[in-house]
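Table S2 (text version). Query chain:
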Amino acid sequence: MKLSPTFRMPLKRRKLGKTNYRKRLKLLLSKKPRLVVRKTNRYIIAQIIEYDEKGDRTVASVLSKELLKFGWNYSFKNTPAAYLTGLLIGKKALEKGIKEAVLDIGLHSPSKGARVFAVAKGAIDAGLRIPVSEEVFPSEDRIKGLHIESYLKKFEGISKKFEEVKQKILGEK
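Corresponding structure-token output:
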């Protein structure tokens, strides 16, 4: 079988549905570090990544499971955990000298109030500059976990624990 010279095999990561190269190129053209947010079935992953010709370089990384060190004993994938993960990655980025980044949500749908935007809100509250519209962030009640506390008895006190963990991350307590 002979292929025409214009035929081009699709890039492997695009074919597997892992990378949107158009979006990636736009993010890289900003020449700023990226705040990469990914969700798994159990955790939220946030990383600060800088572009390098040899390959992207991870400057700081946080897995929501690290919230255990701060006393968080609830789910690691809900909205409050996403916000706290963002707060933690923002603090780590500032320690490494990174003051601004662009949000990279990958192939996640950018829907208003999503957990990926809760991570961005946490990073912004930590002091990182990220160009994101205020209207896409989850409401304060959702960030504090009041929506969970109202319908699940096992999550009673989540908003109080949220505030304690937030203070520990920020180093105020």
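Notes on Table S2: The chain has a mean pLDDT of 87. The chain is about 35% helix and 15% strand.
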